[in-house]
Design a protein that fits this description.
With about 260 residues, the chain is mostly helical. It has helices at about 1-15, 30-45, 50-60, 90-100, 115-135, 150-160, 190-205. The protein folds into three domains: about 1-45; about 50-135, no CATH class; about 150-205, no CATH class.
Length: about 260
């Protein structure tokens, strides 16, 4: 914008010096050139603070307490470099939290003037965030089983079946007042057996006919069939004595 104003002032002076001389108006191309020059000048005028200059702030105001000898807060910043903050992400995160909370430097300690602390914390955040963006490492998620409440909801959603998971599954471990924390919801061999038993019963209820009528049939031997222990019944398993041997057609699979 300064360049545009300067052009306007020159035009006014030329017009005032010679009444009969006129300055032709700027064409659209010239206006675009002037505008782009103005924007470029404004953009280059406000440069971001380099991270290397913020290292000096850390060395001057932080290392006095956080050094290898005093180790305040079990932290030494003697070799800390802001431009390499991503290599010590844990230390950088601690610094960011303390600076954002206004806890460092502590009350009574010498503090930098102006907004140096704000620039420092913003620079730390920028360096760490850019490194994470280039090399994302979300970590590993541990295996997590469903707890009782989750198991009941899953069965209800899949089969429209209301079950009581406590019939098969033990009480869930509580961590930080939550019963779905993966670190404590481990899966043992005993728990695996419990889940398999639950799956067997639930699948039987889901595909079976719960209101199927009860049917019974009685078989009996002819009085002429001997039940003596030294005589076997035809069709009975080898080694048995007495009993009944019949072929029966069951209407459905199940436990009888």
């Amino acid at each position: 914008m300064k360049y545009v104003l300067a052009m306007a002032v020159v035009s006014a002076l030329l017009a005032g010096g010679d009444r009969h001389r006129t300055v032709p108006p700027l064409t659209l191309a010239h206006q675009q050139t002037v505008l782009s020059s103005s924007l470029s000048t404004s953009a280059t005028g406000s440069t971001s603070t380099p991270a290397s200059s913020m290292t000096g702030v850390v060395q001057e105001y932080c290392v006095r307490c956080h050094n290898d000898r005093r180790l305040r807060g079990d932290l030494s910043l003697e070799d800390f470099s802001v431009e390499n903050a991503a290599t010590e992400a844990d230390v950088s995160e601690r610094m960011i939290k303390k600076l954002r909370a206004g806890m460092m430097p502590p009350p009574g300690a010498r503090r930098p003037e102006g907004d140096s602390l704000l620039i420092l914390v913003e620079t730390l955040e920028k360096v760490v965030d850019e490194a994470v963006k280039d090399r994302p490492a979300p970590g590993n998620r541990p295996f997590q089983r469903v707890n009782r409440a989750e198991y009941e909801r899953v069965v209800a959603q899949l089969f429209d079946l209301q079950v009581d998971a406590s019939r098969w599954l033990p009480e869930d471990q509580i961590s930080a007042s939550f019963d779905n924390v993966a670190d404590v919801q481990v899966l043992s061999a005993t728990l695996m057996d419990a889940y398999l038993s639950a799956a067997s019963d639930v699948s039987r209820q889901a595909v079976g006919q719960s209101d199927a009528p009860t049917a019974s049939h009685t078989y009996s031997n002819d009085p002429s069939v001997s039940q003596h222990e030294w005589e076997t019944v035809e069709g009975a398993p080898y080694g048995t004595r007495g009993g009944v041997s019949e072929l029966h057609t069951f209407p459905a699979d199940g436990k009888y």
